[in-house]
Amino acid sequence: MTSRARSIVAAAAALLLALTVTAGCAASFGAQTQQQYQAAEGANGDSGPIAARNVLVMADAEGKGVLYGVLVNDGTSDDRLASVTVDPAAEGVTVAGPQELPLPAGQAVPFGTRGKAITVNGAKPGRMLKMTLSFGEAGPITLYVPVLAEDHYSPSPRPETEE
Question: How many C-beta atoms lie closer than 10 Å to residue 52's C-beta?
Fold first, then answer.
């Protein structure tokens, strides 16, 4: 093999090695595809076999809204949503409506629909509410729940003191 051919082979090998090494940079444990993220706008939380998914408040400009989300009972025994409370620091925000909700084992139960509407008053779009969902058997789930406008627009969250 001539020296020119050796140079070409060596350059090709070096290029192949460089491509192989740099191609793996995004495939380590810190790769973007390995990072968990929340694709939905609502809040998620877990307590034992109970999972709260995509919990959010849809409210009008006056602060009258409804709490929406899904509760999933992955357990083998039935449970129930016993109450929903808002942190007292969120002055003027109240929760009302039928808060007791049966959670059959192995099922997902949406709330915020007819007959299962939990109303939230005093929370205008753009706020984040610290809310606690309490259950009959599972421990409570505390979430920071976003308040969205009824047209699903999500304004930037504002500090509580601006209200």
Answer: 24
